[in-house]
Amino acid sequence: MKKPIRPPRLADRLFEWYCNRAAVEDLHGDLEELFFLNLQRMPIWKARLFYWRSVLSMMFSYALKKRKRKAAYHHFSTNNSLTMLANYFKVATRSLAKQRFFTTINVLGMSIGMSFSLLFIALISFLRLYDTFHVNNDRIYRVNSMIDDRVRNNEYASSPMALGEKIKHEYSGVEEVVRVSTAFSAEAKYETLEIPLRGYFADPAFLEVFTFPLIKGNKSTALSKPNSILITEKAAVKMFNEQEPIGKIITLGGFGDFEVTGVLKDIPKYSHMQFEIVSPYIAWETYRKNSEQQETRSPWEEFRGNYVYMLLPEGHDTEALTDYLTSVSREVYTGNEKFSAEFQLQALNDIAPGKELYNEIGPDWGYASLSIFGFLTLLILLPACFNYANISISRSLKRAKEIGLRKTVGGQSNQIFTQFIVETVLITLCSLFLAYGIFLLVKPEFMAMLVSAEGLDLDPDAITIICFVLFAIVVGVGAGAVPALYFSRMNPIQALKSKAPAKGVARISFRKILITGQFALSLGFIMAVVIVLKQYRSSVNYDFGFNQANILDVDLKGVDPLLFRNEFSKLSSVESVSLSSHVIGTQGSSSIWLKSVQQSDSLEVFYAAIDHNFLPNLNIEVVAGKNFGENLPDNGKYIIVNEEFVRQFKLGTPVDAINRTVVLSDSAEVIIAGVVKNFHYMHLREPVRSFFFQYDAKQLHYANLKIHSSDMLSTFNDLEATWKVLAGDLKFEAQFFDDEIEEAYSVYFVMVKICGFLGMLAISISCLGLLGMVVYTAETRTKEIGIRKVMGASSFQLAIMLSKGYVRLMLIAAMIAIPITYVFFDKGLLNSSYYRVEIGVVEILISLMIMLVLGLATVLSQTIKASRSNPVDTLRYE
Predict the structure, then answer these.
(1) Number of neighbouring beta carbons within 10 Å of residue 707
(2) Distance CA 147, CA 340 (A)
(3) Nearest partner of 681 among 549, 575, 591, judged by Cα
């Protein structure tokens, strides 16, 4: 008997595995039956070959059919998803168009809430670019200093002068070390032109570490000469116009002459370094050695305006460098009881935005200020989102039958949820257009309020626009999630009967809490505007103890002060001229340590240099002793002190203090010639402290002109003509004293504008939300209003009935906002100023009246309309 032919084991197992995986086990039986019935007479090799071919053919055929089925299913699913999305969009559009009033309220509220957020997004989008243009930005680090001078302990962005040199010579784990000083600021003179330029002294490796491209000049030799200078393209145009700048010699104040060896491409705004000129660091060291005003402190204690940057190698080890900096700190400051410092590394990409540091080299974009900005953004955005959720849920009875019907015919909860999300996203996208318009409108004013606006560009690019759109979508999903979830969970039976859910009372309470919170926030901003405005007006109109009216302060810019006084005194419009080292009341003054002969301890005392005309010119009262004499050679031996000086040094009465001797910090003895009444020589944030005047012609940098003129234009022409004779092409810079006082306290006015803008947004959102709630309440109580009118209720009574609940909520909001705002300003913000205003009942009442007027106007605009409706129209179908 012939042995039956069996399929090859390998092919058989392969086919079994494939059939099992594809769930087509019946194919294996068909193939085996075909094999035994028709292939028994074939040779074994031919039968096996046929079996292999059959297996592979069937596997290929099945795989091809399966792929086609998958493609068809994917095509069907894709088309189905697009169809569903289009249907969601169509239904959402029809629903929003049907409820035009509530759609308009929601769009306005969301656009107002989103407008301030767009400013924040644009700012963050700009800050993401900071310092990214440097090729080696991931390998550049800066050394920060934690300074402890036994008075305060602060972290600075700067470092001691000697640290960079020590790292360069002792530590081999860095490729380049660059020291940078910000002291390079002066009037630049070329031929007859003179303009102010500011920049840095930097080591020659500055261009190797940082990517500041040269338009003209040689990168390797541009900073090799001590008197060489690099100038930016924009500054070169201002200085040389169309002339070739390379090789030109410019004079920079007391720093000397410099040769232009290169022209830099203009510095991008998204650089934490902003400068116009760069010169070798050795020029700064030479200037300091030759300067008469050279500091006597140790170079390890001089850190202000000095910065150390390092370029680390690939695969750098920051831990080893940190350990080295710690060892340097211990080595240098051990045994120093008055001063110490610790050094820390900061990556270039962490500088802006970064942690808050003192003495930053450029714009300060700290995390703290950005967090406050973000918090204010949420304070405006969240109420707008809550408004939408509030109005949407309150209208649940209007949408109940729609939802019940959709669920009855097979609508799923996830479909209803998606439907309402699409509606909300559609609203936020519409709101984005209006919010963008508000953004463009307020952007210039917003930038004008920022201190670092010069290094800021909020013009949106493509990435920023994409972020705006994504933000609108995220806000839409977030704001619509609560009402969408609420509607998707509705019981279809209750929905078709138009019954409210069992938890309606709790939701009504939530809406009341929301309205109360919104008006509390609005009242807080209104109170902030009123209080800060009062502080600003009080500061500007404060009696500083000296005359401000018609006093014109002129920056002498190196002009001989005595010659200036003689020439300007000849003008008929100038009543008197005095000279001083500071503009008191705005710039403050310098300070030194001083002690009396009877005391061993020194006290910090502020001072200013003046001439003999200063006290009478500003009407500063002398309560004892005398003023400086005119051109007396011994004026330098005397000082004139204030009453606080006499009190702090325990010199008795002002009369007793006359002719008493005190010792200055340089051991020089001076005699008290007079005592003046206390006046405010510093900002009103500070109390009046010990102060004295001295007579020193070398320190007189400002002239104080008392002007008497009915034609200011002609007077200024005469002043500029006289100035031109004395100073040539130097620009005449003068400002009236009262204008300088206003400028010194402009920070309060900026706060007024910020709080006013935020308050306007907050009250607008609150009133829009309130308007929507009042309209909906009036619609749902139409029949009740008709019945009450039929029963004899007057329109006034009905208006009161519909309004009293909202008035109660506003009063509750006032009870919450007033104490919180009062404590915030009384114990917090206003405490930064020593001479501050007191928050009185008037400010609180004014703020409360503003909120009540706006809120009542919103409520009564709809309740009066509802109360005047004809009951026949509302009850004809009953």
Answers:
(1) 19
(2) 6
(3) 591
Backbone φ and ψ of 746, nearest 5°: -65, -20
Q: Tokens 């609560």 — which residue?
A: 482
Residue 461: how many CB atoms within 10 A of its CB? 13
Residue 377, φ and ψ in degrees, nearest 5: -60, -45
**CA 408, CA 503: separation in Å to the nearest integer?**
22
pLDDT exceeds cutoff 60 at 724: yes
Reported as a pLDDT band with limits 50, 70 and 90, residue 294 is very low
How many other CB atoms are there within 10 angstroms of residue 96's CB atom? 18
226: cis peptide before it, omega within 30°? no
DSSP alpha helices (H): ranges in 338-461? 367-394, 396-408, 413-449
Question: Mapping DSSP to helix (H, G, I), strand (E, B) and coil, where does residue 771 land?
Answer: helix
Give, as one character, the DSSP assignment of residue 612: T
Query: Comparing C-alpha atoms, which of 52, 59, 56, 10 is closest to residue 35?
Result: 52
Q: pLDDT per residue over 502-549, tens digit each?
A: 444 344 466 677 778 878 888 888 888 888 888 777 777 777 778 778
Interval 127-145: pLDDT, tens: 888 888 999 888 999 999 8
Q: What is the pLDDT of residues 784-834, one digit of tens each?
A: 777 777 777 777 777 788 778 888 888 888 898 888 888 888 777 666 666
Task: Compute the mean pLDDT over every residue in the chain, rounded to the nearest whole number.
Answer: 78
The Cα-based distances of 854 to 270, 490, 802 in angstroms read 42, 36, 17
- Dist CA 585 CA 679 (whole Å): 9
**Matching residue, tokens 């606080």:** 644
User: How large is the angle between the packed helices 318-333 and 161-170, nearest 10 degrees?
Assistant: 120
Distance CA 325, CA 174 (A): 13
The residues with which 801 forms a beta bridge, in sequence order, are none
The pLDDT-based confidence of 307 (bands split at 50, 70, 90) is very high
In contact, 203 and 280? CB cutoff 8 Å: yes
What pLDDT is stored for residue 876 in this prediction?
A: 59
Q: At CA 775, angle to CA 769 and CA 777, rounded to 5? A: 100
Structure tokens at 175: 């490729």
Asked if residue 86 has pLDDT above 50, the reply is: yes
- Residue 77 amino acid letter: S
- Nearest partner of 288 among 242, 328, 256, 320, judged by Cα: 256
Residue 783 in contact with residue 871, Cβ under 8 Å?
A: no
**Alpha helix (H) residue ranges in 4-142:** 9-22, 26-38, 44-98, 100-127
- The reported pTM is 0.69
The DSSP 8-state label assigned to residue 499 in this structure reads: P
- Which residue in this structure is represented by tokens 């002969």? 597
Whether 592 and 605 have beta carbons less than 8 Å apart is answered as: yes
187-190 contacts: CB < 8 A, separation 24 or more? Answer: 187/252, 187/253, 187/557, 187/730, 188/239, 188/250, 188/251, 188/252, 188/253, 188/277, 189/250, 189/251, 189/252, 190/239, 190/240, 190/248, 190/249, 190/250, 190/251
Q: Which of 4-13, 205-214, 430-439, 769-778 has the lowest mean pLDDT?
A: 4-13
